[in-house]
User: Fold this.
Amino acid sequence: MAFAKELIDTLKKELRHNHVTYGDIGQILGLSESSIKRLFSERDMSLSRLEKICEIIALDISQLAEKASEARRHVLKLSHEKEKQLVSDEKLLMIAVHLIYGWSYDKILEKYHVDIHAGQRYLTQLDKMGIIELLPENKVRIILSTDFQWLKDGPIQQFFESQVQSEFFTSHFSNKGELRVVVNGWMSMNSIQVFHDNIHRLAKEFELHKDNDKNIPIEQKRGTTMVIAIRPWTLNVFEKHSKECA
Assistant:
């Protein structure tokens, strides 16, 4: 029942966004405006009525449910302790990352060696940490916001820099789907800032494509990492000859 109420509340927001009034809905459903108000205030209506109201704003129920679920995702950052807790256990981190990026728990068990009892403890632990909401039959709902960020210089970022980053760059970037572009030159700080803005836009485009692919089966997707870096920087072998370092 709790999620049904959230569906109705989300629908109300979508109707307001599309400038649809209770009177408009009443005309389409053949009900009085007061009856429509009562349906929404009680947050209780039949599936057929819900479907008809969704059709007014070109929304199907699955899309409405997705929007309602997204509204629950409110955690922007984890505490330092929780990040430390994640990196202290490789399998806990593995399960957390895969769930965050759209894997089902069953698919994780299918892909990786995870003891069923230990896996259950991991799910419970992630639920207590506020990363997921554990549902019946080991289904999960992600609590982290789509704008979620790991802490700067936190345990996850340090883990990335000490283990993931070096492994990532060992590739020749010549296999299918791989690309590495390295360019050098002297630029003003204004131009560098322009590139910062472009990189942020590209990161948002990455997120958009990731979201667009969420309904594609896991078997047809590949774990993908994009690293883009830019900074005013000179090779140490050059820098040590600079007069500024004398």
User: Anything to note?
Assistant: The mean pLDDT is 86. Residues 171-236 form one domain. The longest strand covers residues 132-134. The CA atoms of residues 56 and 186 lie 55 Å apart.
